[in-house]
Amino acid sequence: MKLLILLVVVVGIVALAQLARVYELSAKLRKRREEDISHADHRLNASLFIVFMLVFYASVAYLYVAYGDYLPVSASEHGVGVDSLMNINIIIITVVFFLVNTLLFVFAAKYYYKKDRKAKFFPHDNKLEMIWTVIPSIVLAGLIIFGLRTWNDMTGEASDEAMVIEIYSKQFDWTARYPGSNAEFGLSNYNLITSNNPLGIVTNEGIAESLAELDASIEKLDNEVRYERGVLLSQKAKYEKELKNLKNHGGHGHAEHAEGDEAHADEHTHHGMSEEQLLAEIAKIDEMLTSDLVSVLSETALEAKKDKLYRLKRHKQRVLDIEDFDFSDAQSLSAWEAGKDDKIVKGEFHLPIGKEVEFVFRSRDVIHSAYMPHFRAQMNCVPGVPTRFKMTPTITTDSMRTIMDNPEFDYVLLCNKVCGSAHFNMQMKVIVESQEDYDNWLNEQKTFFVEEVKEEAAPEVPAAPVVEGEPTASIN
Amino acid sequence: MAANAHHEESFVSKYIFSHDHKMISKQFLITAVFMGIVAVMLSVFFRLQLGWPGQSFSILETFLGKWAPDGVLDRNAYLALVTIHGTIMVFFVLTGGLSGTFSNLLIPLQIGARDMASGFLNMLSYWMFLASSVIMISSLFVEGGAASGGWTVYPPLSALPQAMPGSGMGMTLWLISMVLFVASSLLGGLNYIVTIINLRTKGMKMTRLPLTIWAFLVTAILGVLSFPVLVSAVVLLIMDRSMGTAFYLSDIHIAGEALDVTGGSPILYQHLFWFLGHPEVYIVLLPALGISSEIISTNSRKPIFGYRAMIGSILAIGFLSFIVWGHHMFVTGMNPFLGSVFVFTTLLIAIPSAVKAFNYITTLWKGNIRLTPAMLFSIGLVSTFVTGGLTGIILADSALDVNVHDTYFVVAHFHIVMGLSAIFGMLAGVYHWFPKMFGRMLNTKLGFAHFWLTLVCGFGTFFPMHFVGMAGAPRRYYEYSQFEFLDWVMDLQPIISVFAIVGAISQLIFLFNFFFSIFRGQEASQNPWQANTLEWTTPVEHVHGNWPGALPEVHRWAYDYSNPNYEEDFVPQTVPLKAGEEDH
């Protein structure tokens, strides 16, 4: 295969070289200058412009016919306005496209060079120029007005009745959160994210779990760093040297600071350690060295672990800061409480038909973009900066399946901002259904809080009833 | 005069560390041609994957090795290829290559100057450009691969090595390369501005400047005002990556770890980036439009229609380009009212653009058009500029942008309006000024073949992408089989790939013609296109200082073609006005 490609390239180059040589020679024979385009060439290029134009137009027409119905009818209320705006735009630009390209190619073909003709000297014409300044301005003004009206409809405040759903993104999946029975989202904090609390919802249990996880990691890393063989051995050597110094100088060894050797500086820290203490330390190190916790790490690995340890300790401090948060005012207290009945779903999320929904988008790691083409909806998910988009679904999944004549069809939410290696498969199904079906579905979803309780206490109990009977957990 | 006292030059000072603008222009061109070859090859590699996802191509393994195990492109490598293709094309070919080549060549020659204001800074500009090119290419070979977050390298993706392999060493090199590139652009740009303002020859009023020079001037001003903002964006990103700051980072939990960052905003980077990024579109496009204005007028044997309106629209486009950057950010959650303002300013750009397009067409009307390869490419440019520009009206409309943002529709739009147009302008420039640069002619018939193949393949590649995008296909996806609703429109992908590959192969015709003609082309005459501008009054053999005698004096504008007062159909700028003849 490689050989074949190489061969093709080589043959191509040789052929071109020969071709050029032929032209070279024939041109020399005819004394043709490269800049003198022959009449035949002019005619050829002129007709190619017309041929190209026709083929181009035919292909464009084919694409419009075959692929012009690019998306099915909009499944959201604002999308209908977007679609009619889009249609008007497409009609206008299609007309201009054909008009301008036709003028261009026809002029290029019609006025090709003839020796005995002189071009028309026509340097400017204010009236003409005014026409093609004013007409586009008027058309654009219309498009701007229509466009901004649609834009304002889309981006206005959501009504009070709107339900709120949080769409949470991370590499490479989506999570949806529903506020649960109290209709209010709990606070969340990225420092509290654990495998059981993927959104970092702030509750006492969440904090406790996060702290437990952090403590475990800190302890593990701390051990790894402390039990590193090289570190232990150098520590031991230091103590032994000190011990030797102590013995050499008898009882008054550390009173004199005569020795100027390197040990001197280290001595300082253990200043005043007695022989017994030193022996005890050495024995402790010996014991540690026999432990199966002992590891051997390269210097860079050790440094990396120390760094990580430092970062984990900072992380722990941030979690403790959340715990210490002053929630004396009623609002923050209720926000803290609110997280307990939040419902978290993955894989697919449901929407009731005809009800306005305001999405809140968040991201945990990089920028993602929540794109729902069938609803003409898109909004970026930006870490640290929640964003919003509101819409009202108008066609249920079932109806859309009928419209599309495709029983398999489903609405999707896909990621539309490059986010890493699996960006191309970061998706979630969207189901639009009747209010009744939606309510049933939502009731079946687990709450964040109950899920944890369930694991500990009664895994068989259905989620929804439990949440009613659950006593309010006290804070601290 | 002292300036043309000929002293012997060594090989190194003549060809390598040259201060002569004509040599530096050639250095830029040849570097850009090599960068262009790399960028086109990268696009062929990922078009293979997009056209026939998952299929094995041994050519991929040959070139990419472990990035394409068993001939199937790796996912991360795909993103790296897309990113580096975009970066090289936008910055190295269409910014450095286009402005570097033609601003350097034409500014002194067309305004009647001996050289650039500072030959040394000019040389420095090229060498920084080369260094940054070398660093960018070398980033393809480091562990983890080249930068992979798309050519816009949005943080946090680009700021966190944990986020993807390409955000490691590859990203560091990308950033370093970019800083050098901007330094190069600034040195070049300042030089261009100073030269145009100060070194015009006697009689060369601003209103007699060829439109090329006007375009280069506005381009240089845009660059000088906007590139420093990119540097600040890049430097802050470097600090976030390496020094523990959090300008762009907030509340991030990645790779199982909550980072110690709060209060930054990734959106800040986007504002800084697009404050350069949008003027950048015109930094790429304006020189191409300037070049085509010159070529269309010369070869139509007609004055460019509406010279003053053309200058006005260049200035208007330049000014507006600074207040439209937000249209890249309609879906970042920006304040909707602010979005409305950007809709308004963006759509305003359509007006000067429409004026330019219609003026080009009126220039052709009743002309006596010489269909040289340069002219063909310029006519092609008008078509791509109009066709691609029109879809910009949809993207500028925030309500519509929501549904096509970051889809193939955008890819189609900017590849046609900016990619094809600028490349066509650059190729037109090469065909037109090749005799001035190398003293020889390019083969015309190969030029015809090159043009028609490029035009057909250019539109064949990018036009169908509009429909792929409107159906909802996001850009920068490794493959689309995960989404059933896109299946029907994916029929177009192999067709697009075929056009892209044939288009890439047909560039070999140009490469052959280019390198062959440098050495073996027909020897050029002094003014092969019978043009009016000053560069054609210089001798074919390059001399230091451009004119062997005194500098030419200018008496008229550059567009006196087919002036009824004269027998010949062109009147060079150096010809004095006849008694009673009015300046244009």
Describe the protein's architecture and organization:
The complex is a heterodimer of chains A (476) and B (584). Chain A is of the alpha+beta class and 476 residues long. Chain A folds into 3 domains: 113 residues, no CATH class; 151 residues, Immunoglobulin-like, CATH 2.60.40; 107 residues, no CATH class. Chain A has 14 helices and 10 strands. Chain A has a 5-stranded mixed beta sheet with strand order 3-2-1-5-8, with no helix packed on it. In chain A, strands 4-10-9-6-7 form a 5-stranded mixed beta sheet. The C terminus of chain A is likely disordered. Chain B is an all-alpha fold and 584 residues long. Chain B folds into 3 domains: 233 residues, Cytochrome C Oxidase, Chain A; 232 residues, Cytochrome c oxidase-like, subunit I domain (Cytochrome C Oxidase, Chain A), CATH 1.20.210.10; 57 residues, no CATH class. Helix content of chain B is 61%, strand content 1%. Chain B is built from 17 helices and 2 strands. A two-stranded antiparallel sheet of chain B has the order 1-2. In chain B, strand 1 and strand 2 form a beta hairpin. In chain B, helix 7 packs parallel to helix 9. Chain B is globular and about 80 Å long. Chains A and B meet through helix 1, helix 2, helix 3, helix 4 and helix 9 of A and helix 3, helix 4, strand 1, strand 2 and helix 8 of B.
